[in-house]
Amino acid sequence: MSDPGSEPRGSAMSDREARQRVLRTDLAIGLGGSVLGYAEAGPALFTVLPTLAVVGLLTAAALYAVEHAAVPGVYPEVTALASLVVLAAVVAGFVVVIEASVAVVLAGALSGFGVGVLCYRLCYGFLFPVPAFRLDRVRER
Questions:
Q1: What pTM was estimated for this model as a whole?
Q2: Which tens digits make up the pLDDT trace of 60-92?
Q3: How far is 4 from 41, CA to CA, in rounded Å?
């Protein structure tokens, strides 16, 4: 029995189908992160706006670096792993520096991640074309 969302063998996914799949997936991830972070912290989320903003910017920058091969000579997976380590270190720094509970800071980081994914994909999905690297990755699945 095959997965209902899978493509039959031998059929190639069109650019439009790949773009739609990327947009659906990334917009769902972005909305999910943003909403879950707010659901966890509620109005207290506004006390950790610096965390949200910085994590959002770093997430968008990481996505750009991976999808546009911004680090020459480095595999995209290595760039993604390095970005994850940097994000974790930044969030840990915010946990230590900001005078809010750890749960609220982590909720701010989760919302920031969601906002970063949303902003990046709105930019490179609606304003500009989805990068070929991302479309190829979707087609491989």
A1: 0.87
A2: 999 999 999 888 888 999 999 999 999 999 999
A3: 36
Nearest CA to 24 among 130, 112, 111?
A: 130
Residue 15 gets the label, from left (phi > 0), alpha (psi -120 to 50) or beta, of alpha
Place of tokens 């994914």: 117
- Average pLDDT over the chain, rounded to whole? 91
Q: How many residues does the chain have?
A: 141
Q: Cα–Cα–Cα angle for 111, 116, 120, nearest 5°?
A: 150
Sequence-separated (6 or more) residues with CB below 8 Å from residue 103: 40, 41
Quick one: which of 41, 44, 51 has its CA closest to 93? 51
> In this predicted model, what pLDDT tens digit does every residue of 1-26 receive, in sequence order?
445 555 444 458 888 999 999 999 99
Give the pLDDT of residue 90.
97
Centre a 10 Å sphere on the Cβ of residue 120 and count the other Cβ atoms it contains: 21
Give the alpha-carbon dihedral of 78, 80, 84, 90, to 10 degrees.
Answer: 100
- Which amino acid is present at 95? V
d(CA 40, CA 43): 10
